[in-house]
Specification:
The chain is mainly alpha-helical. The protein is built from twelve helices and eight strands. Helix 3 packs across helix 11. The radius of gyration is 23 Å and the shape is globular. The N terminus is likely disordered.
């Protein structure tokens, strides 16, 4: 992991890379996404043997079936850069491909099992702390913690993958498999789908972010979008990670903004300036966190019905620019170690050169501004989904604080 794009994970989100490069006129080489070419990689047996019904999901029932893989630059069911490393992750990958309707049920069960396994190992360590086997129990607890952490990172990734599949957007495959003579093109762009998950105020900030890191204006012409540009691979990786973090930040801060706004509307004595004094977590009403995951439609409707008398309330952009440095840092900071590890491993998998094993390379890629925009939009969506997924998992399995 030393070679991963990892040094940007703890920097302030709003400090963004400079535009990648200037455009140049050249022909483009495209790779085409074939979403119809879906080949299941893992088969999961959910029935038979014992009295358990179709919901009796157990990772020991995992059955791996060999089949022909997709072509290198072809989107398929799980033709994504990162492959699950744990048994739990491989099991859930099979459920996602072959029994999609049971995926969230399986995820919930596996998270509970992981939490129970970790708690049991910690309990044995505490009970045996004064015995001759204290060192052994401590080592077992550490190993169990590491195993559970890897499994949870896999679950986190698969939940994000599921969220992308809901909006019919396949993740971009490993870039090393999609480069032809140093050229990259990503089709279809899926811009509309990737933008549809955000509110209009958040989308405006995302468009400004795209302009700042790529140089592509929000209302660029088709000719400008398809103009080609040269970019160094390591810089593209850094922009991707920064965009993931920016998406994570926007999700966090927009939720806080809507919450404070509704509090101020309910109680005129409270103002949006509370962001400078109150810890964000203390402002959540009971049970609010339980409604976040999978409830984008309701979140987007928060604040509807505001009267004209309330139009003078600042918008999201002004709200963010007025942040106290401490509050800004809390919203920008990744909350869990698992999320930090996932971003690092995913960025390495996406940009890794299989021959050298390095991301920090001086390789120059020729691509279009449209493809750069596609990558940035995907990264922002990844960060937004990461926030939701992290919150969802933490309600079942306590994540490690970063």
């Amino acid at each position: 992991m030393e070679n991963c794009v990892y040094n940007h994970l703890h920097r302030t989100i709003l400090t963004l890379p400079t535009p990648l490069s200037s455009s140049s006129s050249s022909s483009s080489v495209r790779f085409f996404a074939n979403t119809a070419a879906t080949r299941p990689l893992v088969g999961v047996s959910l029935g038979g043997g014992g009295g358990g019904g179709p919901l009796s999901l157990r990772r020991r029932r995992l059955v791996v079936k060999a089949s022909a893989g997709a072509t290198p630059c072809e989107y398929s069911s799980l033709n994504s850069p990162l492959e699950p490393r744990s048994t739990v992750g491989k099991f859930l990958s099979g459920v996602l491909q072959n029994h999609r309707q049971l995926f969230h049920v399986a995820v919930g069960e596996e998270l509970k099992l992981l939490a129970d396994d970790r708690d049991a190992a910690l309990a044995r360590m505490v009970i045996g702390s004064g015995s001759d086997e204290a060192l052994l129990h401590r080592r077992i607890a550490q190993l169990k913690e590491n195993q559970c952490q890897i499994a949870v990172e896999d679950i986190m990734y698969l939940l994000i993958f599921y969220k992308f599949s809901e909006i019919r957007v396949p993740l971009v495959p490993k870039l090393s498999s999609c480069l032809y003579n140093g050229r990259l093109e990503i089709l279809p762009s899926k811009d509309w789908e990737l933008e549809s998950i955000h509110s209009l105020e958040v989308l405006d900030m995302i468009k400004e972010h795209i302009t700042s890191v790529t140089g592509l204006r929000a209302n660029s012409s088709v000719t400008e979008c398809w103009a080609t540009t040269k970019v160094r691979k390591f810089l593209l990786a850094r922009v991707y990670v920064a965009s993931v973090l920016y998406g994570y930040f926007l999700k966090s801060v927009s939720l806080r903004y809507h919450l404070e706004r509704n509090l101020s509307l309910a109680n005129p004595d409270l103002h949006l300036g509370l962001r400078n004094t109150l810890p964000f977590i203390d402002m959540f009403p009971s049970g609010f966190k339980d409604t976040i995951f999978g409830s984008l439609s309701s979140l987007q409707s928060i604040g509807q019905g505001i009267t004209k008398e309330e139009e003078d309330i600042e918008d999201l952009k002004c709200y963010v620019t007025g942040f106290h440095p401490g509050s800004l840092q809390r919203c920008a900071k990744l909350r869990s170690k698992e999320a930090v590890n996932l971003i690092g491993s995913y960025s390495c998998a996406l940009f890794n050169n299989e021959e050298s094993g390095l991301v920090e390379s001086d390789d120059v890629i020729l691509t279009s501004f449209s493809s750069l925009k596609r990558l940035v939009l995907e990264a922002v969506a990844f960060g937004s989904f990461l926030w939701e997924t992290e919150d969802y998992i933490d309600n079942v399995y306590k994540l490690m604080d970063d």
